[in-house]
Amino acid sequence: MLLVISCWVLAMISALSWERRYTAACVTATLLSFLLVQGLSLATWTGWVQVAALGVTPWLLAAQRTRDETQRGQLHASETDQLARLGEAARSLLSLQTSNQQMEAQITDISDLYHVTKATVRTLHLPELFEASLDIAPRLIDAKTLRLIDLSESTPHVLRASRAGVGRVHLIGYDEDGTLLRELFSRDGVGTIITRESLEKLRDARPDDISGLVALIEPLEEEGVLVRRSRELLEREITRFSVVEHDGLIVGCAALYPHGEDQAELACMAVHPHYRRWGYGEQLMKRIETRARAAGIKRLFVLTTVTSHWFKERGFAERPIAELPAEKRQMYNLQRRSKVLMKTV
Q1: DSSP string of 19-79?
Q2: How far apart are CA 55 and CA 11, in angstroms?
């Protein structure tokens, strides 16, 4: 009987793990061993039940195994299909995002062409350019709703006001509270201004600019970036200064101090922190260089503690203190350890 049980166990194991032919061989061996050992029991119905049980149970287990494998295969195929769909959806989403970015870029380009903003109005102050902008302006783009607005049939009030001679027209939004107050009572406002004149002026300083100069350079003096200058000294040397005025506010300054016949110092160069990305420093330096050349200056020098890289990018080169004019060399403050930069103009 032990032989029969061993063969049956092998048949069950083969039904779970092995190929069908091994299952068939083990079932056959089980039945033959049962006939050899219990052959006489076939004379009763219980013997036939035992034979059926020994022969059928391995095949039932093998059939269950086949069903499980089929289900696993179907589940794997379903997961693969879902992953493929997710991948396709991700690619579609990426493509849609790329299309949206391209559309936003196009909208930005169109907006740059058709809007007169505070950043661009500085260069659109010539009458011819202003008139051209008024002709272009009736076709605007609404970037929020992604649709073109054609205003050519009904001229907006802002264009009618500009063409009627109004010097400054403010465009403000209506979807936020307080925009009118912020536009009228803050320096930079929140809207768009259309003007026939430039908001910025690069000019020589005047005595009435003293208060603006003090307000501009005083914070830098407290930080140790600039050498302290009294209000009285500024009043005496005001003619040496050039300033940038933006909408009535002094936002930048620089001074030219001659030393001898062919050398001069570029000094007290400062730009308001809120306007340092507007190129005012570059404009001031070019104006000082122009004034220096007009005065017959051949070499310009500057003493700086924090912005030497900015000047080096614009043609200045670091030089030893010994090359400074004698008067300036005697006044050199060793504690500040300012770098000496020079440029031929």
Answers
A1: -HHHHHHHHHHHHHHHHHHHGGGGGSHHHHHHHHHHHHHHHHHHHHHHHHHHHHHHHHHHH
A2: 9
Beta strands in the chain (DSSP E): 139-142, 147-150, 168-171, 192-195, 200-204, 241-246, 249-259, 263-271, 299-304, 317-319, 339-344
* Dist. CA 2–CA 7, nearest whole Å: 9
> pLDDT, tens digit, for every residue of 61-84?
666 767 777 787 788 888 888 888
Domains belonging to the chain, first-starting first, are 2-82 (no CATH), 121-195 (no CATH), 200-344 (3.40.630.30)
Query: What is this structure's pTM?
Result: 0.51
What burial class does residue 299 get, using C-beta atoms within 10 Å of its C-beta: 0-12 exposed, 13-18 middle, 19+ buried? middle
Q: Which residue has the tokens 């001679």?
A: 165
Instruction: Write the Ramachandran bin of 260: left for phi over 0, alpha for psi from -120 to 50, otherwise beta.
Output: left
